[in-house]
Each structure stands twice: as C-alpha cells, then as structure tokens.
Design a protein that fits this description.
The protein is built from nine helices and 15 strands. By secondary structure, the chain is of the alpha+beta class. The protein has two domains: 141 residues, 2-Layer Sandwich (Fructose-1,6-Bisphosphatase, Chain A, domain 1); 106 residues, D-Maltodextrin-Binding Protein, domain 2, CATH 3.40.190.80. The radius of gyration is 18 Å and the shape is globular.
Length: 263
C-alpha cells in the first residue's frame, strides 16, 4: 500500500467536495430534478447519484488501492483505507428546497475515521478536520477559522438538538429524550449534519439521534473530536458503526448518557 500523508488525503477530500458542490448546487431547486424511492422508502435524486459517481471517480483516480463505502453504490474494495461517502446528507431537505444539506466525505483507516469534510454549498459553509490537524470552518468569502466546542459544563445551561423526535420514539427512547429535554436549557430539532457542525462551532452543546448509517457519521466524528468534543453511540460505543449518535462538548457527555441510559 502506498503511504499518503494525512494532509494529502485531506487535500484530496476537499478537492472532491469542491467538485461535488458544483454538481449538487446546479441541481438544487432544479425543476427537472429526478426523484425516486429506494427499497427502504427513502428518497434519492439524480443529484445524489451524480455526486457519488464524481467522488468515486476522483478517489479511484487518486487512490486506486483504497476501498469505498457510499450510500448510493455500496462497497467497493477491501482495503484498510476506506473512504466513506454520503453524497447528499439531507436529501429530503434538498428536494424540498430546504438549504440544510451537504456532502460528507471521510477516510477511515482500520475502521477509525481520521479525516472528515462536510460541505454545504446552499449554506455557504464547509467544515473539515483531520486527526492532529484541528477542526476548521470556512464560510463564503471568509478566511478559515479553527473550531472549538463550548465550555458549558452544566446540563441546566445546555442547548440540545435531538434532530428527530419520531426517531427517538421509534427507538423506544421517547421517555429518555423528554427527560433530557427537561434537564437542559434549550431544545431544538435542527437536523442533518448542521446540528453536529453547530456543536463543533460551540453554538450548541449536545446532539443525539438514531437510525444512522456509517456514511451519516464518518465525516462528522473527526470534526467533533478535533474541535474538542466527544462522539459515541447512544450506548457509548466509539466509531460510526453502531447506528446511533450522541455528540457533546465532552463536558456534558457523561451527564447526558446518565439520563438517556444504556441498553
């Protein structure tokens, strides 16, 4: 296996995200957007497929020995270096004209995400991180700035995004999320990748949800962790492989988990 520096891999991911933004933004609000329904009853658009094809082509050209896991086209290869792609996180928002959506690209080595890029052209923002390199945000026409989670240490002062009340209910955790909402200062359901990015920016303090896939979380984890936060499953497991997420500023993680409980 050819050795690549993490900086080189991050540069590639950022370039791939730039190409993806051109494709997705061109199809956003398009009157001829093609929408179909997958077997799991979730929507997919021609933009989702085109973005993933573009990213896969770029990875295959630049890192031909690496493997790929993508939402729309599955797994390719079996390398310990695996790129994880969500071409459009927030497809339902994308097709309804809600600007909270973005492309997620990460690289996991031996199952551990080591870099992540979240690019949201409709919001005019891109976030990225690599292990040991910090977490960063660049907004339109601004210089990149380093991210840091909040210093809130008391649940009573915390702001939480629970993302989907229905998701908590279907997972059997409705009572727990209600209990958590009573313990904190402010609750919102911001949703998709943006809630996690606001956590990395220090604007909110806790994000949690269920019914997730590795491509929903792979890019988010390095950004949260490099900003100083903590990311686990609801049950406290590390990595993007366990179907749920609890992300916090770190100071509130144990307190939030104590209310949510473990099953």
């Amino acid at each position: 296996m050819t050795d690549y520096s993490l900086s080189d891999d991050l540069s590639l991911a950022l370039a791939l995200a730039g190409d993806a933004d051109l494709i997705s933004l061109n199809r956003y609000l398009a009157v001829d957007l093609v929408i179909t329904t997958k077997p799991d009853r979730t929507p997919v658009t021609d933009a989702d497929k085109a973005v993933e094809r573009s990213i896969r082509a770029g990875i295959n050209a630049a890192r031909p020995n690496d493997s790929i896991l993508g939402e729309e086209y599955g797994t390719e290869g079996d390398s310990a270096r695996q790129w994880i792609i969500d071409p459009i996180d927030g497809t339902a928002n994308f097709l309804r004209g809600v600007p909270i959506w973005g492309t997620l690209i990460s690289l996991a080595i031996n199952g551990v995400p080591v870099l992540g890029v979240v690019s949201s052209p409709a919001l005019g923002k891109r976030w990225w991180a690599a292990i040991g390199h910090g977490a960063w945000l660049q907004a339109a026409d601004e210089e990149p700035r380093r991210l840091a989670v909040s210093g809130v240490s008391d649940l009573a002062d915390a702001s939480i995004s629970y993302n989907s009340l229905k998701g908590w209910d279907e997972a059997g955790y409705l009572d727990e999320v209600v209990a958590l909402s009573r313990a904190v200062w402010r609750t919102r359901a911001i949703g998709e990748m943006w809630a996690y990015m606001l956590l990395a920016e220090g604007a909110i303090d806790i994000v949690g949800e269920f019914d997730l896939q590795p491509y929903d979380m792979g890019a988010i984890i390095p950004i949260i962790e490099e900003a100083g936060g903590t990311f686990t499953s609801i049950n406290g497991e590390v990595g993007p492989w366990h179907g749920s997420a609890l992300a916090t500023n770190g100071k509130l993680h144990d307190a939030a988990r104590a209310i949510i409980g473990t099953r």
